[in-house]
From TrEMBL:
One of its GO terms (biological process) is protein folding. Residues 1-26, 41-95 are annotated as: Disordered. One of its GO terms (cellular component) is cytoplasm. This is CS domain-containing protein. Its main location: cytoplasm. Gene3D superfamilies: 2.60.40.790. Keywords: Cytoplasm. Residues 8-26 have a biased composition (Basic and acidic residues). The lineage of its organism: Eukaryota, Viridiplantae, Chlorophyta, Mamiellophyceae, Mamiellales.
Length: 262
C-alpha cells in the first residue's frame, strides 16, 4: 500500500511539473511576441513619438494622397502600439513571472525551482525598486544567489504593507501595496512588456463594494485615463467646453471668432 501511494504521489507530482513547464513555455512565448510587437511599434514611430505615415489612400480627385489614419475612425478593439491586452486579472506576463492588479494592489507570481524553501528566497522591496532571487548551495558547499528580478516598479509602493509567501513548491507570491491607489499600472516592473490600460476591466463587484462617492471618483478616474490615452478631453475639460458653448449660444450678439480659449 505504501509503495502504491508513493507511486501515485510521484505520478501526480510529475503531472504537476509537466503542467508548470507547459505554462512557463506558453508565458515565455507570449512575452517574446510582446517584445517583438513593441520593437515593431517603435520602428513605426517618428522622432516625436507620433505614428509614421506608412500608407496613402487616393482622394476623390485622384491626384492627392492622405494618411489613412485620417480617414478611418479608430477601432475600439485596437491596442495601443507596443502593448498587449491585459489578462483576466488586469495584469500581464514577463519572463519570470505573471502579475495581476487592482487599484490598490499588485500581485506578482514568480516561478522558482521546485522545492525552494522560504529561507532560500531573497526578496528586497523598496518603494521604487524590487530585487528578487533565491539562494542555492553548490556541491562545494558555497552559497550562490540567483537574481531573477532587479528593476524599478511602474509606480511607488508602500513598503510596510508589502509581503510575500511561498505557494506550492515552485511559486512565490508577492503582494505589493500601491502608493497611488487611483492608478492602473502598465507593467509591474519597468522594461517588461506593457499592457494597454484602456482595456482594463475591473470587476463590477469591486466597484459595487465601494461607497457612492468613492465609486464615482474611481469611475471618473478610469474614464479620464481612457480619454487622455485616446487624445480626447477629460470629463472636466468637456464640462468647461460645454459651459462655454452654452454661454456662446446664449449670447449670439457677441463675436467670439477672435477669442482664444484654454
Amino acid at each position: 500500500a505504501a509503495a502504491a501511494e508513493a507511486a501515485a504521489r510521484q505520478k501526480r507530482e510529475a503531472a504537476e511539473d509537466a503542467a508548470r513547464a507547459e505554462e512557463d513555455a506558453a508565458r515565455k512565448a507570449r512575452v517574446r511576441q510582446a517584445e517583438l510587437d513593441r520593437a515593431l511599434a517603435k520602428q513605426n514611430l517618428a522622432a516625436d513619438g507620433s505614428p509614421k505615415i506608412t500608407e496613402l489612400v487616393e482622394s476623390e480627385e485622384g491626384d492627392k494622397g492622405v494618411d489613412k489614419t485620417d480617414v478611418d475612425e479608430e477601432d475600439p478593439d485596437t491596442l495601443e502600439p507596443g502593448t498587449f491586452a491585459p489578462n483576466a486579472g488586469n495584469g500581464g506576463d514577463a519572463e519570470h513571472y505573471t502579475w495581476t492588479q487592482t487599484l490598490s494592489e499588485v500581485e506578482v507570481r514568480v516561478r522558482v525551482p521546485n522545492d525552494t524553501p522560504a529561507r532560500s528566497v531573497v526578496c528586497d522591496v523598496k518603494k521604487k525598486h524590487l530585487t528578487f532571487g533565491y539562494k542555492s548551495v553548490e556541491s562545494n558547499a558555497t552559497t550562490n544567489v540567483t537574481t531573477l528580478l532587479d528593476a524599478d516598479f511602474f509606480g511607488e509602493v508602500k513598503v510596510d504593507d508589502c509581503f510575500w509567501t511561498v505557494e506550492d513548491k515552485s511559486t512565490v507570491v508577492l503582494t505589493l501595496a500601491k502608493k497611488n491607489d487611483m492608478e492602473w499600472w502598465r507593467c509591474a516592473l519597468l522594461g517588461d512588456p506593457e499592457i494597454d490600460t484602456r482595456k482594463v476591466q475591473p470587476e463590477n463587484s469591486q466597484l459595487s463594494d465601494l461607497d457612492g462617492d468613492t465609486r464615482a471618483t474611481v469611475e471618473k478616474m478610469m474614464y479620464d485615463q481612457r480619454q487622455k490615452q485616446m487624445g480626447l478631453p477629460t470629463s472636466d475639460e468637456q464640462q468647461k467646453a460645454d459651459t462655454m458653448k452654452k454661454f456662446m449660444d446664449a449670447h449670439p450678439e457677441m463675436d467670439f471668432s477672435n477669442c482664444k480659449f484654454n
